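Bug #77: duplicate submission created two jobs. Keeping one. Sequence:
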Amino acid sequence: MSTMTTPQTTDAPPSTGAPFPWAQTRELLRQLTVREIAETVKGSALGVLWLVLNPLLMMALYVVVFGVLFGGSFDRVDDESPLAFAAGVYIGLSTVGLVNETLAKSTATLTRNANLVKRVVFPLALLPTVQVLGSGFKFAVNAVLWLTFSALVGGMFGIHILLLPVILLPLFALTLGLALFVSALSVYFRDIQQVISVFTQIIFWSSGVFFSSVRVMEHPPLWSILKWNPFFLTIENIRAVTLWGLPPDFAQLAYLYALSAVALALGAFVFSRLKAGFADFL
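Kept job's structure:
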């Protein structure tokens, strides 16, 4: 694989206070995203093919462990097959993986690109955005695989599957808001990496990767907390339209859209307020 070059930004306009040209911003976003994806397979003999082989191997592992050996169930529909349970676990893991990978990388995205941060003119918000897009690409590969697998094991695809993008949109908006917030704070507080490490573990175990809301509702105190977890609700609604042929919970979707809008606005606000000092701390 050819080595990716640093995005060409030498023709950036002088520091006049004018907005960064949209055409250049779009091209920079494309270049940086391609570089981010390429770095995930850098040094691999299989190159880009590994982006497909790795989730395929993981999916096979989930089928054997969770579908065959554990024989688990989400108890959402009658006669749920073990393979459908394995597909549901795969959906949960790939969704949580999108969020946790983005947050982990966001703690270092500005420090790793200090040369870009110190430029006179550069749209700094592109850097955490690239982290979301890079992780989103992996999520898309996984989504193709679990959609295909769900169909093969008897997933009840219906009209509701068309609402899958509607369910995913607030997930990406929320993730971007968190990425902006975390990347900005990480410049000033380097210990935030340890905080995010704990936070991602909380996300993993509280997002229903291995269980559904049916099980949680049996424990009202626990449900009173987890019902506000946006990642838990997102995974539940993805499974509903993908595995069980059920409509999403529109009240939950309204909550997810409202929360993601607030998170994105807050993340953008914090990033904008703190970016003036980035170059000094780096």
